[in-house]
Design goal:
The chain has 344 residues and is of the alpha+beta class. The protein folds into two domains: 71-230, no CATH class; 237-339, Arc Repressor Mutant, subunit A (Orthogonal Bundle), CATH 1.10.10.60. The chain has helices at residues 13-24, 30-34, 53-66, 73-78, 88-94, 99-108, 139-161, 180-187, 216-233, 237-247, 256-262, 267-276, 281-299, 304-310, 316-327, 331-339, and strands at 2-3, 11-12, 50-51, 118-123, 127-133, 167-171, 191-192, 199-203. Helix 8 (180-187) links the parallel strand 6 (167-171) and strand 7 (191-192). The N and C termini lie far apart (46 Å).
């Protein structure tokens, strides 16, 4: 059983916040982490914001460049994630009947996690394990993300089964890296190298350990919510492609014709496809501008002229007019209120 992790799935920006917080422990500032990602600091606090795989990979590259001398950097980062980091996905694991069912649930909805590796379950008469395949990841990130994904699994197993679960061993392909002893020090488990696969191995009997928070009703409810989140996070249809361009290469000042050209489509065809998916180009631009405007006003001190430019408006008057239509107040009133008492 294996679930491939495709580039078509987005990750919540909250996962990037974990990396930024981790970097801060080593005195690396937020701006260094976010350089070239297209993510602004204010967005890190948006629980609903989803980012592209490429944005997250750039953040990982920044982290690696900023901390080249930290041994087992990916493994140490992986231990910083916990069940709560993943929201609904993590809660679904916690309420599963057993370790085995939690692993099966995890793999069914794996794109809701941090994982970049492809994972699969294997069994033998006495062992139960998860193989971890990093071959689809860009070469310069493979070791970092392999170790991060394995460490995250260790952390989740520790949380889910409390002290009742023992990981027998880590298996790694290839020769031991210079930081092999650091992995053992961080995890308490001696890694084995020169193996035929990368894997976490448990005792077969431990896969059947019951989990203390099992709730049959919640299992069904949370699985439904995981399915809904998968649908939301998948960059599907022409709507997702247009949104990607508006937030990336094209920018919020782009016209329908600009975006159609980048998609190698006629403007009329793009209009028709968006209509078929229940939206319009204007509605997509408006929705992205509205969301970003609120975030920037609440979390930055950008001047109104700069905000207007950032959001693709020709002048601040047009921006202020649109903002009042969205929120029923001026940008300055909104910012003043957001800095004072919480808004309803």
């Amino acid at each position: 059983m294996g679930i491939p992790i495709h580039a078509s799935f987005k990750h919540p920006v909250a996962i990037s916040q974990v990396m930024v917080n981790f970097a801060a422990r080593y005195d690396i500032d937020v701006q260094t982490c976010l350089l070239g990602t297209g993510i602004i600091e204010a967005q890190l606090r948006d629980a609903d914001l989803l980012i592209e795989r490429e944005q997250e990979m750039r953040l990982i590259e920044n982290l690696m460049l900023a901390l080249p001398d930290v041994p087992a950097l990916g493994f140490e980062l992986g231990l910083r994630y916990n069940v709560a980091t993943f929201g609904i996905w993590g809660f679904a694991l916690r309420t599963s009947r057993s370790v085995r069912e939690a692993v099966q649930c995890a793999l069914r909805y794996l794109p809701l996690s941090t994982a970049y590796c492809n994972l699969a379950i294997f069994r033998s008469p006495h062992e139960y394990g998860i193989s971890v395949d990093a071959s689809a990841i860009p070469h310069h990130l493979q070791q970092f993300l392999l170790e991060r994904d394995m460490a995250t699994a260790v952390r989740l197993f520790d949380e889910l089964a409390l002290s009742g679960l023992q990981i027998l061993r880590f298996e790694f392909q290839g020769q031991p890296p210079a930081h092999a002893e650091r992995i053992e020090a961080l995890s308490g488990i001696a890694p084995h190298y020169g193996c035929s696969r990368n894997a976490l191995v448990l005792r077969r009997q431990d896969a059947e350990l019951p989990l203390p928070m099992y709730d049959a009703h919640l299992v069904r409810l949370l699985e439904e919510q995981c399915r809904a989140q998968l649908d939301r996070r998948q960059v599907g249809g022409i709507t997702g492609q247009v949104r990607q361009l508006l937030l990336g290469a094209a920018g919020l000042a782009a016209s329908l014709e600009d975006v159609a050209s980048q998609l190698a489509m006629a403007p009329r065809s793009l209009h028709r496809r968006l209509t078929e998916e229940g939206t319009s180009f204007r509605n997509l631009v408006e929705a992205e501008r509205k969301q970003l405007a609120g975030q920037l006003l609440e979390s930055t001190e950008m001047k109104q002229d700069d905000l207007a430019f950032q959001l693709g408006y020709g002048d601040s008057t047009a921006f202020a007019r649109a903002f009042r239509r969205w929120f029923g107040q001026s940008p300055s009133e909104y910012r003043k209120l957001s800095k004072g008492s919480p808004r309803e």
